[in-house]
Amino acid sequence: MSLEKPLKKLASCVILDLDGTLLNTDALVSEILKGFLGKYGKQWDGREVHKMAGTTPFQAAAAVVEDYELPCTPSQFLSEINPFFSDKWSNIKALPGANRLIKHFSSHGVPLALASNSTRSNIESKISSHQGWKESFSVIIGGDEVASGKPSPEIFLEAAKRLNVDPSSCLVIEDSIPGITAGKAAGMEVVAVPSIPKQSHLYTLADVVINSLLDLQPENWGLPPFQDWIEGTLPIEPWYIGGPVIKGYGRGSKVLGIPTANLSTEGYSALLSEHPSGVYFGWAGLSTRGVFKMVMSIGWNPYFDNTEKTIEPWLLHDFAEDFYGEELHLVVIGYIRPEANFPSLEGLIAKIHEDRRVAEAALDLPPYSAYREDPYLKISVKKDSHL
Ligand code: RBF
Ligand code: MG
């Protein structure tokens, strides 16, 4: 999905959006609105959250009041729901790559601004629990500190003014349509990191659309490149997932010659929504067979246009038979690339085999090889099983 174009314009500063770009705010908003609307006898529609992305708090409230025909005004709704949010703002998780990005730019002396439609005081709460964030921003502007929020360019123009730079030398990173619109109207370069899955075509106004912050290439704007990639792989904060092997779409071995041991996503919806789709790798433990190298895809498989996000690990070993139902534990430690679409099945297959080679080689390198011994991979076999 990476639509990176070659260098167009140099940037000297970076202006970041907060909700949906650096923070996984959607998850919290969904959780709170679901409970709150339940009290009105209404059922929260998870898709609504995308409609609210990038709007001001008042606009978001107005949309909910209208769509759910609530018996109150947007202001009443806001003051009623605010207490539910206020003690949670400081608990929102950073999106993958957010910490890395902030540390990278601040350690290279690239001036950073934070420009959010959220109120200044909510911004302060939201970033307070994330170490090093507040100090990394030379400028912080909230939606209540300008006359009109995004999609008006005002907030970005004000950020450039306070950074003491020309708007044309600012690079904006945004997840929402109002934010992208604002950035372009301000005459800035805009990178879109869409928070709406499978909708990258809506983001054509942006100069570049990337799948997650992990895919940002600052050198495209003359900014310092990330230096943490190792042999085509990016070490990530390890995450753990396990469960019985289930039958997938049945295309793995039949069509592609790539027998993936699909994991049930049941109980992992939060974990799955937290991790951007893409190709990852790590180690896999099978209860009766041992520990194996593993490369996997997370996502919607654009080539097949799946409707559900799946986890498809390919264990890099020749097994004599299928092992559906067997307990599989994964430790995921590296990232390779975003999911892509391919003009031909041959193209997809060739790319997946390349992923295999990249993962196999990387897993022998020290930052990755040590995880082979992770206790999570040594699954004890229950005595009462079918033996
Ligand atoms: N499917 C895609 O549509 N695009 C991809 O870029 C892609 N990359 C993959 C990488 C790996 C390592 C694996 C194991 C699978 C990948 N797939 C991708 C999914 C593939 O289409 C799927 O595993 C098979 O269809 C089996 O269901
Ligand atoms: Mg946003």
Structure description:
- There is one protein chain.
- This protein is α/β, with parallel strands linked by helices.
- Strand 8 and strand 9 form a beta hairpin.
- The radius of gyration is 22 Å and the shape is globular.
- It is built from 13 helices and eleven strands.
- Magnesium ion binds next to loops.
Which strand-content bin applies to the residues? Answer: 15-25%
Number of helices: 13
The average pLDDT score comes to 90
Lateral arrangement of strands in the main beta sheet: 3-2-1-4-5-6
The main β sheet shows up as: 6 strands, parallel
Structural class: alpha/beta
Write down the overall geometry.
globular
Quaternary organisation: single chain
Number of strands: 11
Beginning-to-end CA distance, first to last residue: 46 Å
Percent helix range: 25-40%
The sequence of SSEs as H and E is EHHHHHEHHEHEHEEEHHEEEEHH
C-alpha-based Rg, rounded: 22 Å
The stretches of 5 or more residues where confidence is low (pLDDT under 50) are: 383-387
Q: Ligands bound here?
A: riboflavin, magnesium ion
